[in-house]
Amino acid sequence: QVQLVESGGALVEPGGSLRLTCSASGLTLSSYGIAWFRQVPGKEVEGVSCISSLSSSSEANTFYEDSVKGRFTISRDTSANTVNLQMNNLKPEDTAVYYCATDHRYHICRDSYVYVTFAYWGQGTQVTVSS
After folding, report:
1. Cβ pair 34, 48 in contact under 8 A
2. Close Cβ partners of 46 (under 8 Å, ≥ 6 residues apart)
3. Is 29 helix (H, G, I), strand (E, B) or coil?
4. Percent of the chain clearing pLDDT 90 (strictly above)
5. What average pLDDT does range 3-16 have in this prediction?
6. Dihedral of CA 53/49/36/8: which sign?
7. Cβ(82)–Cβ(29) under 8 Å?
8. How much helix, strand and coil, in percent to the nearest 5, is found in the chain?
């Protein structure tokens, strides 16, 4: 059974940093593309970033939404079977529940990742940016 678990969310002041981690059981994350999303209560789920699988021809591919470009970095730790989202210079508008997602059919990260139907989602981790 595949299970994704996000961790690392916290309350942080504007300008601060957090590192979110997506870990998995029942699935080797490096074999699949991974996407991060976020959601504010009452609003739609918003794409944040994605990274291609290590087995794809586009394994170096990453993508960031304009709202986080230059501040967030997605990366893999293959030994730990995790995907991390390093978030720097956080802003109040980054406040949301953050989710990681993947699917057995998802390998290549493109800017159209928000239209992919992901089978596997974590439970989310809360990020609050406030002074």
Report:
1. no
2. 37, 38, 39, 40, 65, 96
3. helix
4. 92
5. 98
6. positive
7. yes
8. 5, 45, 50
Query: Which stretches does DSSP call E strand in 1-131?
Result: 3-7, 11-12, 18-25, 34-39, 46-51, 62-64, 72-77, 82-87, 96-102, 120-121, 125-129
Identify whether the C-beta of residue 85 lies closer than 8 Å to the C-beta of residue 49.
yes
> Tokens 């504010």 sit at which residue?
40
Q: Give the tens place of pLDDT for each residue, 70-118.
A: 999 999 999 999 999 999 999 999 999 999 999 999 999 999 999 999 9
Tokens of 39: 């959601």
The single-letter code of the amino acid at 38 is R
